Amino acid sequence: MNRLAAFAICHFAVGLIAASPAVAAEPAKYAIAIHGGAGGWADLTPEARKGIEQALEKSLTVGRDILAKGGSSLDAVEQSVRVLEDSPYFNAGHGVTYTATGQHQLDASIMNGADHTAGAVAGVSTVKNPISLARRVMTDTKHVLLAGDGAEKFAREVGAEIVSPDYFWTDRTRAEYEKAKAKAEAEARDGEAKPKTSQLAAPDHYGTVGCVALDTHGNLAAATSTGGLAMKKYGRIGDSPIIGAGTYADNKTCAISGTGVGELFIRNAVCYDVAARMRYADVSLADAAIVQVRDRLPKDTAGLIAVDHAGDLVAEFNTAAMPRGMADSSGRFEVAIEPEKSGDASNAR
């Protein structure tokens, strides 16, 4: 073959390659899940049910849209939780529950799975959106957790939105408080024993809110916010602001937000344990969540949402219900309150 022929063949081949259609890159995945607290959620009025579902849809839409535009998982979980904090239907932010003395003490935490940075606040009483203050702890200080007066002072230093304590009262929570107070006073007169931790699941629902997300950059994040246990005493702090107990995120495994009896979540390091089972026992996210919620924790005490590094979503709970929502880059978008109609108190994965 002479040089001219060889050149012609090569030129023709290059032309074919150039004319071939480019192979489209697979779109980057994103996924997000939210929850509004495990519990009974019994006897919901049509108005309350509609309000809960609308709040879930709004929260999920806000987070999903951030992710769909290439935004960060941290932005998605913070903004989604803020929506739930602003709703009167959950035990976080505006609808927060009460302490034994009729006050409000709010807790929240957020964690970045990319580098394990985290921020949390506990026992704040005038901060409208504790989850955003928790993020400022993460980004603006060298600390992880600020509590009480120190957290309140920090909130004012960074310009967090401050509200009157009356903001946190709703007609529902005020009525619940008066009923609970009367019951506590009657029990005190009758000399009844103090409840054990295992009996702290008395309220119909916990109402803690949370969000987990995977962004298109492959980063995971988790956030949780709560008013804590109804009628709590002595500055009690539950699991929600405790990294590893109520919130955890690790890019190598998953992001988790928990809800339920805080003392149990702290003792069992529930959220970290889910990630640890994935990393060290090489089990799936679904199986790790099932072990925690169904096998390790007592019935009617727990729920969690999680997403792994592949974008798989999980919602598990051993209570009668758990308001929740899931969305991802495949077009999935769903919210629910009760379990799926499978006879099981857990939800789809």
From TrEMBL:
InterPro entries: Ntn_hydrolases_N, Peptidase_T2. SUPFAM superfamilies: N-terminal nucleophile aminohydrolases (Ntn hydrolases). GO terms for molecular function: aminopeptidase activity; hydrolase activity, acting on carbon-nitrogen (but not peptide) bonds, in linear amides. The keyword Hydrolase applies. Residues 1-24 form the signal peptide. The active site is at T208. Keywords: Aminopeptidase, Autocatalytic cleavage, Hydrolase, Protease, Signal. Substrate binds at R236, I237, G238, D239, T259, G260, V261, G262. GO terms for biological process: proteolysis. The keyword Ligase does not apply. This is Isoaspartyl peptidase. It comes from Lacipirellula parvula.
